[in-house]
Known about the structure:
With 93 residues, this protein is α+β, with helices and mostly antiparallel strands. It contains five helices and two strands.
Amino acid sequence: MREEGPVTRVVMPHGETAWLVTRYAEVRAALADPRLYKDWAGKLTGPDWVADEVTGFLAVHMLNADPPDHTRLRKLVTKAFTGRRIAGLRPRI
């Protein structure tokens, strides 16, 4: 897919269409683009939507949050993920 292009249209298991971004630069650009949202569960589902156990777990976390929630959560964990702290975890990982 990367050889064909950085963005590929795909069909998900239940028939939904999605875009798969496979190259680092394009992923960074997409994540930084305010026109795109990360909270798909909050934006693409109706009020009666009930997620299965796996989808519900994966849908609600910091990486799928949009500002201002993402900003608030990121501030809480920033000190734990400095370069020095991550390097210190290297032997355990």
